[in-house]
Backbone:
């Protein structure tokens, strides 16, 4: 089925560990983004990309890195996990480089706990 | 900068009753407006969207929303709520000046009483 695939669905990390959250889409969407969802705060933008080789920071980028080597994949790297990064992470994609005319397609999320 | 306010954190309605979820945005130009729904443990699903034209937009699952520029609002409505509508609802705003970025409200949790 076409859509956005995130792996893993659940992850527990120890403080200081690093890991990569995977995101892949098969809709040939130019735009991809990562959000974190915390209770009472809605979704906050971490990083986004308007196409292969182009990334930029969102609202809460500290502690996270991204790269976009292909149109399909947009991994999110946690460099040194901290308890404050305990959250649910969503990847989303959208058609087109500019504008949000079509809305986002979301993945099912990764629930990350840092202990 | 764009911002979105959903004033109600929780709303409880009886099954069969009407529903209105409020959303106010702060943005100078013409925004793109969206409503998403999230069931527990799931991702977000697009309910409806407004870009231009008719200010009353229809979405999936019997939902509709009305854009009121004078009030900077985009409230979501449903005439008769079903138990399966219990979920969290997010309003989001975007604009071409900000590229594809969307700003989300904090969400409203809907509970449905039988």
Residues:
């Amino acid at each position: 089925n076409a859509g956005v695939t995130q792996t893993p669905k659940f992850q527990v990390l120890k403080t200081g560990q690093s890991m990569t959250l995977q995101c892949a889409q098969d809709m040939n969407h130019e735009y991809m983004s990562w959000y974190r969802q915390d209770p009472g705060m809605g979704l906050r933008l971490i990083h986004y990309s308007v196409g292969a080789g182009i990334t930029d920071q969102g609202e809460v980028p500290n502690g996270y890195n991204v790269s976009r080597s292909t149109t399909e994949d947009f991994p999110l790297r946690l460099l040194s996990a901290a308890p404050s990064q305990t959250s649910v992470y969503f990847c989303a994609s959208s058609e087109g480089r500019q504008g949000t005319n079509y809305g986002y397609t979301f993945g099912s999320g990764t629930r990350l706990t840092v202990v | 900068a764009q911002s979105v306010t959903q004033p109600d954190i929780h709303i409880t309605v009886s099954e069969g009753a009407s529903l209105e979820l409020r959303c106010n945005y702060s943005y100078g130009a013409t925004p793109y407006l969206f409503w998403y729904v999230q069931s527990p443990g799931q991702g977000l699903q697009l309910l409806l969207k407004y870009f231009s034209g008719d200010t009353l937009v229809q979405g999936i699952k019997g939902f509709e929303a009305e854009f009121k520029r004078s009030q900077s609002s985009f409230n979501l409505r449903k005439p008769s709520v079903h138990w399966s509508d219990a979920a969290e609802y997010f309003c989001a705003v975007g604009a071409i000046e900000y590229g594809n970025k969307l700003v989300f409200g904090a969400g409203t949790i809907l509970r449905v009483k039988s």
In short: Chain A has no helices and eleven strands. The longest strand of chain A covers residues 43-51. The interface with chain B takes residues 4, 31, 33, 35, 40-45, 48, 50, 58, 90, 92, 94, 96-101, 103-109 of chain A (CB under 8 Å). Chain A has a mean pLDDT of 92.
